[in-house]
Design brief:
The chain is α/β, with parallel strands linked by helices. It has 10 helices and 7 strands. A 7-stranded mixed beta sheet has the order 3-2-1-4-6-5-7, with helices on both faces. Helix 5 packs parallel to helix 8 and helix 9 runs antiparallel to helix 10.
Length: 327
């Protein structure tokens, strides 16, 4: 199969018939074999009934229905497990993403050999209360991740199938799938300017809370990506540096006090010096950070996925050469 189109939906009964017809038209014109996977994220309208009707009319339509609203990340992750297309394309169900972009996205993945292509809605039809925070978080994500994309949160993206099978999306981390992909070793990431259409039906499903959760998810992805398998490298280093700074300050204060005592020079009581408490606090924090790293290392080493590394290609191996250690 050439393409899997994954579409999370939440109360989009008015838009999905037009969207499915548009996708079908594009696929037929370009001769693609395809599937469309609608994921009903706990809709309270007739979205699921509409999806069932579309499936009866078009066997390429498939559907997944959640018992309640779990969020876009859960919808994408669940559909990714079922998608079988060589290229997987995600888009929103509100008709703001154009299916006419599909052929070029497919070409960029298959011919340009990109792992992931992210859409860039260069001209947007969103209110300023949404565009300004979006620009800020895109800039912050570029700075932290090193990925030079202009629109990380664009719902219109294309992936090689092996990319979506190798990552896990949860929480609100759908905004940072390019970052997750990069930390998983898929570094060939491209961008395409796409048309952003004005909303035709309904209202946006995302509130102000995303601007709070978004940065926290980005920090979480960055930490797990860099130190998930070696947490001691972070906490141990920070703890050692903090302890040594505190110990150095304490040594200076104690040495100075001892020198004054030997020379018979009156000296201030160490307990009355603020530097003493700063040094003591630094050593305590350093010790706690080191112990945190040690405990995190134990957790990481006992994780069932501690040795799960993504293998891209192999040569020269045959099945009989595989050995599994038992016991």
């Amino acid at each position: 199969m050439d393409i899997s189109v994954v579409i999370p939906m939440f109360n989009e009964e008015e838009s999905i018939p037009e969207l499915e017809a548009w996708i079908r038209k594009v696929m037929l014109e370009n001769g693609f074999t395809y599937e469309v996977i609608f994921v009903d994220d706990g809709s309270t309208d007739d979205s699921w009934k509409v999806a069932e009707q579309l499936q009866r009319q078009n066997p390429n339509v498939k559907g997944i229905r959640f018992t309640r609203n779990y969020g876009k990340s859960a919808a994408l992750n669940t559909a990714f497990q079922q998608a079988s297309g060589e290229v997987v394309i995600t888009m929103d169900a509100d008709l703001q993403d154009s299916p006419d972009e599909i052929p070029e996205l497919y070409r960029m993945i298959t011919e340009d050999d990109l792992d992931l292509v992210s859409g860039w809605k260069k001209k947007r039809y969103d209110p300023i209360t949404k565009t300004i925070p979006t620009k800020f978080y895109n800039a912050a994500t570029r700075w932290i991740s090193g990925i030079q994309l202009n629109d990380f949160n664009c719902g219109l993206k294309a992936y090689k199938n092996k990319v979506i099978k190798s990552i896990e999306v949860y929480g609100d981390m759908h905004r940072y799938i390019p970052v997750i992909a990069k930390w998983s070793g898929f570094t060939k990431i491209g961008e395409k300017v796409v048309v952003h259409q004005a909303r035709k039906f309904g209202v946006t499903k995302f509130g102000i809370s995303r601007f709070i959760r978004g940065p926290l998810d980005l920090l979480s992805i960055t930490f797990v990506g860099k130190f998930g398998k070696r947490p001691m490298h972070l906490f141990g280093t920070m703890g050692t540096v903090m302890f040594l700074l505190g110990f150095g300050l304490f040594t200076y204060i104690g040495g100075n006090k001892l020198y004054h005592l030997i020379q018979g020079i009156p000296a201030k009581n160490i307990a009355l010096m603020s530097g003493f408490y700063i040094a003591l606090t630094a050593m305590i924090i350093g010790t706690m950070l080191f112990l945190t790293g040690f405990l995190a290392e134990l957790v990481a080493r006992n994780s069932p996925n501690r040795n799960a590394y993504l293998v891209d290609k192999e040569i020269g191996f045959v099945e009989t050469q595989r050995f599994v250690e038992k016991g």
